[in-house]
Amino acid sequence: MIDHMGIAVSDIDRSRKFYEAALRPLGMSVQMEATPEQTENGSTALGFGVPGEKIFWIADKSKVGDGLHVAFRADRLEQVDQFYEQAMKAGGRDNGRPDPRPNYGPNYYAAFVYDPDGANIEAVCYAEA
């Protein structure tokens, strides 16, 4: 089980807008904001999740990594579709439209986008169609 994870971003404001739009259909929003004075490396950090949980963090002032992949679980197929639509509207780049992906497993319905820094972000749902 993943408790939380974080990624470095090159532009915190641009990335905040992207993730607020893309994660809203999954029921996630900013749950905590850490200022440069509150972090060890002087970065601004945002914790996304649901009330009481901060499972996904973005922060500036660190090197943006290559090849990063994050998958967010959706409860309903429509949430995957909405994730993709909102992410694309917010500046994401297509890396796989919403569709069943039986090669990844039974009932695997997912969409993939590249975020503004090129990280491969996925929304996946295991519900039966």
UniProtKB/TrEMBL annotation:
<dbReference type="InterPro" id="IPR029068">
    <property type="entry name" value="Glyas_Bleomycin-R_OHBP_Dase"/>
</dbReference>
<dbReference type="InterPro" id="IPR037523">
    <property type="entry name" value="VOC_core"/>
</dbReference>
<protein>
    <submittedName>
        <fullName>VOC family protein</fullName>
    </submittedName>
</protein>
<dbReference type="Pfam" id="PF00903">
    <property type="entry name" value="Glyoxalase"/>
</dbReference>
<dbReference type="InterPro" id="IPR004360">
    <property type="entry name" value="Glyas_Fos-R_dOase_dom"/>
</dbReference>
<feature type="domain" description="VOC">
    <location>
        <begin position="1"/>
        <end position="126"/>
    </location>
</feature>
